[in-house]
Known about the structure:
The chain is α/β, with parallel strands linked by helices. Helix content is 28%, strand content 27%. The protein has 9 helices and 15 strands. Strands 3, 5, 6, 7, 14 and 15 form a 6-stranded mixed β-sheet that branches. α3 packs across α4 (149-160) and α3 crosses α8. The protein is globular and about 55 Å long.
Amino acid sequence: MKRVSFAEFGGPDVLQLVDAEEPHAGPGQIRIAVRAAGVNPVDWRIREGQILKAHPIELPAGVGLDASGVVDEIGEGVEGVEVGDHVFGEGFSTYAEFAVLSAWARMPEGLTFEEAAGYPSVVETALRIIREVGVRPGETLLVSGASGGVGSAVLQIARDRGITVIGTAGAANQDYLRSLGALATTYGEGWVERVRRLGHVDAALDLAGSGVIPELVELTGDPRKVISIADLGAPELGVRFSGVAGSVPEALAEATGLIARGKLHIPVEKSYPLAEAAAAHIDSAAGHTRGRRVIVV
Length: 297
């Protein structure tokens, strides 16, 4: 089979499309014929060697955590799923023709494979950081870098829970943030005052790693009310860096319910073939994403 792999840490140019042995489902796992794989910042951070404590790997290594596809192999002890089912979930080396998943759910009705591939890690991350930052119904959550996949999920989940959300993003994405129920403003010079004019901030999330943690602490008044998923230097400022996933099966179950109720939709901004995985990483690292980027197999 074909899979995207890298034999050394480095830039996007280390990614290669190679022939590889097909993986097989072990106990508690399933294998899918991959139809699409989600592109997440964690993918290129691992490729660069940034966060190996949370994601230890041996080289050469595959790429990708999220995928959607058709079940074609079921491991020992797995129940409730059959060969031929359409599922989405999380596993490893998902930029490939076949991948093993350790957490999955049936795809919600009406979702395409491309759309479904963009949900697993994104929704798990969104649910986790909303919980960790401790924001409650009736309070206001500031989301810095709100237009990407995690931001899109955070805004919609928070609004569904009765939380007011303020989102920062580029000028081109202001209407998009408003369509998700957020009070929107641009980043750049004067952004702190623009946020203050929109309302008091009870908690804040840094999703872009753009060096704004001191300002987020200033706006909330408490470093314990700020969480970052993108700035590895956050702990030096007294802010928690959240990088270890919680329960993916629980997140998938909640995502399925939200999608079914029409409360969660994350658009796919762009799709790439396997051979263009490097371009997908370049675009993901550049930011300014509206929704998700996915690899189509």
